[in-house]
Task: inverse folding
């Protein structure tokens, strides 16, 4: 899928102070505790820009909690997160999304009673009609803007062969199609770092391959991706590097081939 | 000073009415995940049933029993024929509240249509005034406090000692798991509504006893206090409801002595708002799986 | 047409207009944005009271005595502007109480409880708005143009009511059919997902509570200028339920549905009962009205939850520029999609 540039100006590139330009996101001793249980127990990772990083681990390893903290839906108990060199630990989800940190959800969260095209358009940033004043007073401007964005959305629909469903309610589509809609919607937001929470879950294997190809293409165009995934074969094909979590901590990271050699990693999966 | 002691005593009486209703309300929420806003309507309908019994010259305590039966039956029917079907249809949380609102409206106005808009009151025998410590309460008031203690104790025994009670707690905590473990959750839910419905009915009658007079819409304002007590204690937690009832019963009555009684519910309301804003899960938070 | 008939028609128009404006406001909040404002009626009440005390003189000889605040004796349309402002302002604390982390049903119930308690407070606190007795002798707007007792005034007022309806309807249409409206609906569908694509849902919520509150306040101003009195009994919490019933029957999320619902339920009921001779003890007919309202809600929620006029599907593919789109040359994908 083509990810076109974001429609409005992004965050100030000028005030990135002295950070490694290759690191798009890093966490420092991130923790999240629930009533005495350490769901995430001191995670410090660095995500390299322009890579499709996999996040794997047995159930209960803390992957979803970590993703939630990165996205802003879960507040960390302690620790910090830096995105693009900026400290974002206390920044709310919607502002992270506006600076290009976009997430998808494990349970497909398309807007059910909006059409597919509406779903896609809703994610566009910088729409002049997306404010009360804009809606009432700047109709000619947002109509024009919408035409451009519709063309952009249509191209996405063509690539995923969903054009016939452009005006269908997203909730009426099949599971795999809804998953595609959610991913495309995230793309319309012009993400720089895409957080995917098990995008292939419950998806037909053929469609999973397609989605994988789209993700690789995205990566090649410069979008950084962090993907939580259970299906190790998918992770094998798509992800480099791969981070392994167990019991709230990072166990190891590297390529899948290398990780397969590490006894600690293998044991974590077997013992669970 | 005497006023404050006296109002503390009234607070205990109010708390006893509140406790019975709050336990019922919170358990209904716990097992069905619905804020049953028709609770007030069932209360007042049961209160009127007790009134009918009472006007036939029968002792009010028998009327209480009648109210309990009425509340149980009406609540059971509401759950079986309205709430469960709507729930099965995946009606949203808000949709369910609207459903209970509509039910409450229908109930209250049925009473209004049948009984007329004028306020009524029970013929009561208050009994001698007893002096307990610094409090002066009538025998009837003491009776109500004792009744609520007995009922609270009975609920406690039900929940902790009986198999049904354990099934209720399991279903409230995690219905899917309960069902998978072999608990007949539908039966448990129906029984819960019967029991809580009885509590609702009895509390309606005791509420009416505690009021000089009452009319079809008298319970509306009291429902605010019930909701406040439930949320303070932790929505879905029966023990929290008991705690919340005592707190709110006393606070509202004492504040009524300090300010005027007209604004009793305002205090409850402010407390509710603060709880919603600061700690919506209440004092005794529950872990719902 | 006899003057009696004319008075009846113009009264219908004004009441209908008030109900339509109120329902449109609630539709914006509940139908479009998914905000459960079960205390909606207090915004209309705030508007009515404000319009009243802005337009009344300091003292009104009511045969007795009324106590109320202000009394600035301001001319039309200032009291109506004040009414809208009051409705909007009242929404600000409400928006702060209804936090994002609250379950929607909890939030709705808090608003309902607020409405109940505010009604009690105003009912009891006489210096504010004359307590339970309410405020009477509210001046009719533009009484300097036409004699308020005359038919000409009735027609003028009906015209104003219709004008406001159309204005509100068009304004609301602009909002709901815009990208902003789409963001509101996204928030309604899935607030967490909406945040994940950059929607500031807290800001959206407060804004819509204020806008809806202002619209409700305006409707209160129109009403009080017509009936010249206002009391707590006019805005008890079930009045919000009537408006909710109107939306459920007419159609949530559709502005035409809101209008239809307003005409069918609050107005329709009022008029239907006018033709039924009062029977039984006093208060029986209103009680039956409420029973029917409650039953209507249950029946429609069960059999036709989307209402008579359901929410329209927005077919955006029609707005595609010709160069890209189903009819574009070379796009070649009409009707082909992998069925999955």
Result:
């Amino acid at each position: 899928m083509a990810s076109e540039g974001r429609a409005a100006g992004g965050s100030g590139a000028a005030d990135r102070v002295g950070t490694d330009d290759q690191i798009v996101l890093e966490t420092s001793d991130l923790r999240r505790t629930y009533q005495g249980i350490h769901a995430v127990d001191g995670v410090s990772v660095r995500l390299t820009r322009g890579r499709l990083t996999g996040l794997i681990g047995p159930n209960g390893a803390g992957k979803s909690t970590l993703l939630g903290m990165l996205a802003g839906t879960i507040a960390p108990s302690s620790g910090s997160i830096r995105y693009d060199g900026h400290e974002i630990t206390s920044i709310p989800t919607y502002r992270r999304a506006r600076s290009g940190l976009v997430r998808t959800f494990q349970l497909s969260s398309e807007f059910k009673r909006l059409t597919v095209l509406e779903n896609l358009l809703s994610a566009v940033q910088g729409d002049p009609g997306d404010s009360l004043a804009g809606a009432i007073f700047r109709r000619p401007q947002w109509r024009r803007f919408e035409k451009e964005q519709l063309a952009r959305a249509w191209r996405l629909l063509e690539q995923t062969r969903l054009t016939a469903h452009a005006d269908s309610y997203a909730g009426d589509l099949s599971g795999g199609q809804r998953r595609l809609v959610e991913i495309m919607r995230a793309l319309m937001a012009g993400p720089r770092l895409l957080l995917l929470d098990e995008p292939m879950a419950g998806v037909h294997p053929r469609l999973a391959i397609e989605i994988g190809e789209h993700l690789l293409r995205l990566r090649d165009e410069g979008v950084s991706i962090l993907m939580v995934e259970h299906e190790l074969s998918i992770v094998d094909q798509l992800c480099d590097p791969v981070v392994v979590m167990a019991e709230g901590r990072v166990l190891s990271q590297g390529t899948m081939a290398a990780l397969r050699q590490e006894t600690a990693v293998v044991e974590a999966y077997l013992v669970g | 000073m005497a006023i404050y002691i006296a109002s503390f005593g009234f607070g205990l009486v109010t708390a006893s009415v509140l406790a019975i209703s709050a336990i019922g309300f919170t358990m209904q929420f716990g097992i069905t995940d619905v804020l049953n806003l028709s609770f007030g309507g069932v209360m007042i309908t049961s209160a009127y049933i007790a009134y009918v019994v009472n006007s036939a010259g029968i002792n009010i305590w028998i009327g209480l029993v009648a109210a309990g039966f009425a509340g149980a039956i009406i609540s059971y029917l509401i759950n079986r024929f309205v709430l469960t079907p709507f729930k099965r249809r995946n009606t949203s949380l808000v949709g369910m509240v609207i459903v209970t609102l509509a039910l409450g409206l229908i109930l209250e106005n049925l009473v209004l249509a049948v009984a007329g808009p004028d306020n009524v009151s029970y013929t009561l025998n208050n009994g001698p005034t007893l002096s307990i410590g610094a409090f002066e309460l009538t025998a009837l008031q003491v009776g109500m406090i004792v009744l609520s203690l007995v009922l609270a104790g009975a609920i406690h025994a039900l929940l902790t000692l009986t198999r049904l009670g354990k099934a209720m707690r399991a279903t409230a905590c995690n219905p899917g798991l309960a069902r998978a473990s072999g608990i007949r959750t539908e039966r448990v839910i129906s029984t819960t509504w019967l029991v809580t419905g009885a509590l609702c009915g009895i509390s309606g009658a005791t509420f009416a006893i505690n009021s000089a007079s009452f009319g079809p819409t008298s319970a509306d304002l009291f429902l605010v206090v019930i909701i406040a007590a439930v949320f303070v204690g932790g929505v879905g937690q029966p023990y929290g409801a008991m705690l919340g009832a005592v707190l709110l019963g006393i606070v509202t009555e004492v504040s009524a002595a300090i300010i005027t009684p007209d604004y009793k519910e305002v205090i409850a309301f402010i407390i509710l708002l603060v709880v919603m804003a600061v700690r919506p899960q209440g004092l005794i938070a529950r872990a719902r799986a | 047409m006899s003057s009696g008939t004319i008075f009846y028609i113009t009264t219908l128009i004004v009441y209908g207009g008030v109900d339509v404006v109120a329902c449109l406001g609630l539709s914006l909040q509940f139908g479009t944005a998914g905000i459960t404002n079960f205390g909606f009626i207090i915004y209309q009440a705030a508007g009515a009271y404000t319009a009243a005390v802005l337009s009344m003189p300091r003292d009104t000889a009511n045969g007795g005595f009324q106590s109320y605040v202000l009394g600035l004796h301001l001319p039309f349309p200032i009291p109506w502007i004040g009414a809208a402002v009051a409705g909007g302002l009242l929404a600000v604390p409400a928006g702060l109480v209804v936090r994002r982390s609250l379950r929607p049903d909890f939030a709705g119930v808090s608003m309902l409880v607020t409405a109940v308690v505010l009604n009690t407070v105003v009912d009891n606190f006489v210096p504010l708005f004359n307590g339970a007795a309410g405020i009477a002798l509210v001046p009719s707007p533009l009484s300097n143009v036409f004699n308020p007792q005359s038919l000409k005034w009735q027609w003028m007022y009906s015209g104003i009511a219709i004008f406001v309806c159309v204005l509100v309807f068009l304004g609301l249409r602009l909002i709901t059919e815009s990208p902003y409206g789409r963001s509101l609906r996204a928030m309604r569908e899935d607030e967490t997902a909406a945040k994940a694509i950059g929607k500031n849902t807290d800001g959206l919520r407060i804004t819509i509570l204020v806008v809806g509150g202002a619209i409700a306040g305006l409707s209160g101003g129109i009403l009080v200028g017509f009936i010249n009195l206002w009391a707590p009994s006019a805005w008890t919490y079930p009045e919000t339920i009537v408006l909710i019933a109107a939306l459920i029957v007419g159609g949530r999320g559709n502005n035409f549905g809101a209008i239809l619902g307003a005409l069918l339920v609050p107005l329709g009921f009022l008029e239907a009962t006018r033709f039924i001779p009062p029977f039984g003890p006093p208060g029986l007919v209103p009680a039956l009205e409420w029973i029917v309202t409650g039953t209507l809600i249950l029946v429609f929620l069960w059999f036709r939850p989307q209402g008579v006029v359901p929410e329209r599907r927005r077919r955006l593919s029609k707005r595609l520029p010709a160069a890209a789109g189903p009819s574009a040359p070379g796009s070649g994908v009409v009707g082909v999609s992998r069925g999955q």
